[in-house]
Design goal:
It contains nine helices and seven strands. By secondary structure, it is α+β, with helices and mostly antiparallel strands. Strands 4-3-7-6-5 form a five-stranded mixed beta sheet. A hairpin with a 6-residue loop joins strand 6 and strand 7. The radius of gyration is 31 Å and the shape is elongated.
């Protein structure tokens, strides 16, 4: 019988999955073979080999180190978001107390430059706002038809686009801007049919797809109401 069992054992291929399955079904293996565990050596890229216990402790230290780095990053992001939303609150208060539309646009521009950006611009769809001549703000106007191809290509069904724009797109949206590396472009209004606000940066990496847009959501909801103080909606 013993020889028969030995033959069966010999016929079993001890590959990784088989060993893993055995250890999962026998969790007390390392307890029953504690001395063997202390004597086992595993390859190490620097020290040649280390004991299994040392190797396990090193993995734990590495895991703890990664967790600490992730926690630190999350805390830094939370702090940055808190500062950003505090800044946004001050901006909304500042815009609400502007004495004219030009004053409001200037305050928005100053706020953006305070964040290290190249600028902030508002463009309004001409079929939704009464900004034709003799208005002093015809330069804010943007026809929906001229914007449509850019909207389809860059935004699709979204209300925000973060990234770069090509030459013709920049000429359409920011004809006077220079050295624009990336933009955060957001449609105004709940339906995104009132216009857009554009934050521009000289840094091509400042705005990228996948970044959060919570601040932009808040700002694009409040801007139309502020603009209505100075411009009539159609």
């Amino acid at each position: 019988m013993k020889r028969f069992e030995e033959q069966i054992t010999a016929d079993i291929e001890l590959d990784d999955p088989t060993i893993v399955d055995y250890l999962q079904q026998n969790p007390d293996f390392f307890i029953r073979n504690a001395r063997l565990v202390e004597q086992m050596r595993v390859p190490h890229p620097v020290r040649g080999s280390v004991s299994l216990v040392e190797w396990h402790l090193a993995r734990q230290r590495s895991h703890i180190s990664r967790l600490e780095e992730e926690i630190t990053l999350l805390m830094e992001q939370a702090s940055a978001n808190e500062k950003l939303f505090s800044s946004l609150l001050h901006l909304q208060t500042d815009l609400a107390t502007a004495s004219s539309l030009q004053d409001m646009l200037s305050r928005l521009q100053q706020w953006a430059r305070g964040l290290g950006l190249a600028g902030a611009n508002i463009r309004l769809f001409t079929d939704r706002w009464n900004i034709g001549a003799p208005s002093d703000f015809t330069h804010l106007g943007l026809t929906r038809s001229s914007f449509e191809s850019l909207r389809i290509q860059r935004l699709g069904s979204r209300h925000h686009y973060l990234g770069g724009l090509n030459g013709s797109e920049l000429l359409l949206l920011l004809p006077e801007a220079k050295q624009v590396g990336s933009v955060a472009l957001s449609l105004l209004g709940e339906q995104g049919d009132l216009g857009l606000v554009i934050f521009s940066s000289r840094d091509a990496q400042r705005y990228q797809q996948g970044m959060g847009t919570a601040m932009l959501d808040q700002l694009t909801r409040s801007l139309p109401e502020l603009l209505e103080r100075w411009i009539e909606r159609v």
